[in-house]
Design goal:
The structure holds two protein chains of two kinds.
Chain A: E1 6-11, H1 14-30, H2 35-54, E2 59-68, E3 71-80, H3 88-91, H4 105-111, E4 115-121, E5 125-133
Antiparallel strand pairs in A: 1-2, 2-3, 3-5, 4-5
Chain B: E1 6-9, E2 12-16, H1 23-40, E3 44-48, H2 57-72, E4 76-80, H3 84-93, E5 101-103, H4 106-115
Amino acid sequence: MTEPLTGAMPLLGERDIVMSRQQVRKLTQQLKFSLVDQTKMITAASELSRNTVVYGGGGEMRWEIVSQGVRTGLRLAFEDHGPGIPDVEQALTDGWTSGSGMGVGLSGSRRLVNEFDIRTEVGVGTCVTVTRWK
Amino acid sequence: MERIPVLRMGRVLLVTIQVDLQDQMALQLQDDLSAKIEQTGATGVLIDISALEIVDSFIGRMLAGISGIARVLDATTVVVGMQPAVAITLVELGLSLEGVRTALDVERGMALLRADGRDTLDD
């Protein structure tokens, strides 16, 4: 079945992290990403979904199939209304962790995608947008 | 919640992960394995992840955790069957699974445990 070009799903608990991986797998398969590219995007989605659930107190993942000229790609946005990140530069540093992670969530997922954007404000929330082109 | 079965074969504990792991299941497996090593006096742990389509930092941390706990309990852990795409992604993510022994498949993993100098099939 073909997925619509855009969509959203809630990220409220651990179960949703698994669901987001499955959704991204479906989308990247539909876009005929190579196996390695699928794996990278699904892994990035897993890391960012977990951040949304664990650090952001829940939120949602939105997806969009994007095109630019002849190339197509998948854009994912992870948004929460949690505490925000006071020092983004630090949070993007390898090895930095605020909690129980290994400190690779944000910095690592940035390496797995082609475009990475983070907007965050203390007390307002965080939105991480990633894009991977086929 | 679903639980990952831990099988015992001689002095080796066998785990095959065949489901998309929820974080809680991964933690449960870590607990179960630690308890089982202590109960059975196992000297080896073999974890087959060939069915896993991704290993993210959480699962990576669980594998490293099991490996570390097992070592302290005098058992060797070997993680086998990682898919190439998973390995590529894992390294790019920044995880090298330091301290975790790996082998290409179950057979080589068992050979590795046997080569450890302890007869793994003896009770």
